[in-house]
Write a structure and sequence with these properties.
The structure holds 2 protein chains of 2 kinds. Chain A has a single domain (about 15-230), classed as Four Helix Bundle (Hemerythrin (Met), subunit A) (Up-down Bundle), CATH 1.20.120. By secondary structure, chain A is an all-alpha fold. Chain A starts with 8 loop residues before the first helix and ends with a helix. Chain A has 6 helices and no strands. In chain B, about 85% of the residues lie in helices and about 0% in strands. Chain B is elongated, with a radius of gyration of 18 Å. The mean pLDDT of chain B is about 90. The chains are: A mainly alpha, B mainly alpha. Chains A and B meet through α4 and α5 of A and α7, α8 and α9 of B.
Chain lengths: ~230, ~220
């Protein structure tokens, strides 16, 4: 397998188009299946009623928000280590999708929190670290936007992404510690009772759909970036 | 190598001494921000006592960030930074030295003046020491992390605001542990754990941040 064959933007451009098309199709099909399972097949939760059904959007979005940041950091590391043009473009293409998923996770989380906890926002460890993750994404995007030279933007943003990914676990654990210091474990997502198999299935299908959506969108975006830079 | 680091620290301190106003302004900013909070939320002693660690730490964070913009800017403008990059001393060492000098100028005065602010907030006498200690261990981390942001935003338009967006989320763990140490001590539990975690962060930052600063400087000077 010639890995570096596709490292050139010219050769990657048509491949990205094909990947985008098939991923988009897969995402649409899986999203329909996942939402059907989530809304019609999965049973009503004994404790939370119908409100819990938002987790079919919320949990996959939260997973993706963290996963995309790691992927972004890997592309950034490749960008700095191998100095390939495409790596920086991929990191740039992933950032808005990651920020979007982070925002969706926060938003659906607060919508779920209102009927369940009685408030839109609690300074729960997960919520807080998700919020900080959103700031990290926005910082990444803002730094790229303010540098005119695309190569310098790629590399500078790459350094930031790597510094960020080292910090994410530290932020998570310190926020968790802070949280237990300030308030008792009044709210916790981990105490969820063992989940019905259909609920888990719906969530996994939705996660896969989000995954494919992220791939499709970032491929479309990377094609735009290639075009923009006239490669 | 150490001679080069000593030289950079000495030079930066000398420059700061010649421009004493800049140092004083950052310190004044710290005092003013800390004094604004009681005016905003009321001077009820119990309330002040409970918010003091957080407020003082946030003020320290902002004050330390305020002077980050100047960390590399002057050297960048007059070409000194390019000479440092070309020089024989490893850039990481120079970067670490500059971050250390920044801490001496922007961090250490905060440690010295914090007990005074603590007095305003009616923080118990036993807590001054732990507040100063947490700032002593925590502010170098701020300087090191901030230097990464300063190097990345070097010469960019809107650098100052951008810098705060990049750096403040990374400051969160330091804030939590620093303020947490004082709060734990105030609750009679001893803040040793938090101080040790702060120390661990300092060791981590001191080991890895110079690399990131050097990489960012190379990118900015390309």
């Amino acid at each position: 397998m010639k890995w570096f064959w596709y490292a050139s933007p010219q050769t990657f451009y048509p491949l990205a188009g094909r990947i985008a098309r098939w991923s988009a199709l897969g995402a649409a099909v899986l999203a329909v299946c996942g939402l059907y399972i989530g809304f019609f097949v999965a049973p009503t939760d004994a404790q939370q009623g119908e409100a819990y059904r938002i987790i079919f959007i919320h949990v996959p979005a939260a997973w993706m928000s963290m996963f995309i940041y790691v992927v972004m950091a890997v592309w950034s590391a490749l960008c700095l280590a191998l100095n390939t043009r495409l790596s920086g473009m991929m990191a740039a293409a992933l950032a808005p999708t990651g920020a979007l998923f982070t925002f969706i996770a926060l938003w659906t989380g607060s919508l779920w929190g209102k009927p369940t906890w009685g408030t839109y926002w609690v300074w729960d460890a997960r919520l807080t670290s998700e919020l900080i993750l959103l700031f990290l994404y926005l910082g990444f995007i803002a730094l790229r936007a303010s540098i005119d030279d695309p190569r310098r933007a790629d590399r500078a943003a790459a350094v930031l992404a790597i510094v960020g990914v080292v910090n994410v676990p530290i932020i998570y654990y310190s926020v968790q510690w802070w949280n237990t210091l300030h308030q008792g474990a009044s709210v916790s997502l981990t105490r969820a009772p063992s989940m019905a198999a259909t609920m888990l299935a719906g969530m996994l299908v939705m996660a896969l759909a989000f995954w494919l959506y992220a791939i499709a969108v970032s491929m479309v975006r990377v094609r735009c970036i290639i075009r923009e830079r006239g490669e | 190598m150490l001679a080069a680091a000593r030289c950079v620290v000495y030079r930066d301190l000398l420059l700061a001494l010649r421009r004493r106003g800049d140092v004083a302004v950052a310190l004044l900013f710290f005092v003013i921000v800390a004094s604004l909070f009681p005016l905003g939320i009321g001077a009820e002693p119990n309330l002040l006592r409970s918010i003091a660690p957080g407020v003082i730490w946030v003020a320290a964070l902002l004050s330390s960030m305020l002077s980050l913009g100047r960390l590399f800017a002057a050297d960048y403008d007059d070409g000194t930074l390019e000479q440092m990059l070309l020089g024989a001393a490893p850039l990481g060492v120079v970067a670490a030295a500059k971050a250390f000098a920044h801490w001496l100028v922007a961090g250490l005065p905060l440690v010295a003046i914090a007990p005074l602010i603590a007095l305003q907030y009616d923080l118990g006498a036993g807590l001054w020491g732990i507040l100063a200690l947490s700032l002593l261990v925590g502010t170098p981390v701020l300087s090191l992390l901030g230097a990464v942001g300063a190097a990345l935003t070097l010469g960019l338009r809107g650098g100052g605001v951008l810098l705060s967006l990049l750096v403040l989320p990374l400051y969160v763990p330091v804030l939590i542990m620093g303020a947490g140490a004082v709060e734990m001590a105030a609750a009679g539990l001893g803040g040793g754990g938090q101080l040790l975690v702060l120390g661990a962060m300092l060791v981590l930052a001191a080991a890895f941040a110079p690399w990131a600063i050097a990489a960012a400087l190379r990118i900015s000077l390309e």
